[in-house]
Structure formats: C-alpha cells, structure tokens
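FW: tagging you since you asked about this chain on Friday. Here's the raw sequence from the shared folder, copied in full. Didn't touch anything.
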Amino acid sequence: MATAKNASKASGKTEVKIGISDSTHEINFESPSTSSEVIAKVNEAIKSATVLALSDSKGREILVPHNKISYVEVGESADRHVGFANQ
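HL: got it, structure written out here
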C-alpha cells in the first residue's frame, strides 16, 4: 500500500543548480523532469552548441546559453521537514 509520502517520491522532483560563467550567481530550481532527462538536455545543448532550455515545477522556462554554463548539479529533491518530526 502506497502512502502519500511514497507517492510524492515516486513522482519526484529534481533539484537543478546551474553555475553561470563570469557571474557569482547561480540558478536554482526544481524541475518536474527526471535527473536523466535533465542531464540529457544539458549534454545535448553543450554538444550542439545551442541554448539549454529547462522548465521548472511552476511551468516557467529557464534558458541558458551553452557557452555560459559553468557547471550543473542535478539531484533528487528531498522532503523538507519543519519542527520536530519523527522519522
């Protein structure tokens, strides 16, 4: 029997962090895509020298020119707990 907590992990959101060259800022967002889909899009943008286009969990589009990508961190989003929770 699946609980609500397990169901949300199955759908999973992916945390993405993109470092921008020549800038001290980075782009952080949650994507509804899987980690492998995000990595494939990053690799394709760099390989074909095009713009990296990703969407976040709110439906916004993030566009980064391939030559400005310094690094990309991709990981599964963790549940955030507030207060004292029993685990």
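FW: The chain has one domain: 12-76.
HL: agreed, and The radius of gyration is 15 Å.
FW: great, closing this out.
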